[in-house]
From TrEMBL:
One of its GO terms (molecular function) is DNA binding. Coiled coil: none annotated. Residues 77-130 form the Antitoxin Xre/MbcA/ParS-like toxin-binding domain. It comes from the Bacteria. Residues 13-72 form the Antitoxin Xre-like helix-turn-helix domain. It holds the Pfam family Xre_MbcA_ParS_C. This is DUF2384 domain-containing protein. It comes from Arenimonas terrae.
Length: 132
């Protein structure tokens, strides 16, 4: 296949609907309050958040797509580490003595609002799985 016919990366709007649907399923599985889910998405305006939640579609920006990508990775890593879905979903709320958490839960770390904190949680879980 030549460079001219190679598939290109879809633009963010094409990823918006599937990404938002996945995010809201994870938010439900984790029992997130709307304020927590909004914070994980980078605090979009309330009206935008509720529109995305209701329609399960939209065109979020790159920052939101990046945040959702980390949340998806965290969710998947937890599924692999804890085959019991109840245990996997509960892990994010449990206090954790590991260095990145300092006794707080992973969710508390993720709710700081910084995308870097999502990265830290994802990296920690990947290391626990042996992916460094």
């Amino acid at each position: 296949m030549s460079a001219r016919t190679a598939p290109s990366t879809p633009p963010a709007p094409d990823l918006g609907g599937p990404a938002l649907r996945a995010f809201f399923r994870i938010a439900q599985a984790w029992g997130l309050k709307s304020a927590e889910a909004r914070r994980l998405l980078g605090d979009p305006p309330e009206s935008t958040f509720y529109k995305w939640k209701k329609q399960q579609d939209g065109a979020p920006g790159r920052d939101v797509i990046e945040r959702i990508s980390y949340v998806l990775g965290i969710f998947k890593a937890l599924e692999l580490l804890f085959p019991d879905p109840t245990r996997a979903d509960a892990w994010i709320r449990k206090p954790n003595a590991a260095l990145p958490f300092g006794g707080r839960s992973a969710l508390e770390r993720m709710l700081s609002g910084n995308v870097a904190d999502l990265y830290v949680v994802r990296s920690y879980l990947d290391a626990q799985r042996g992916w460094q």
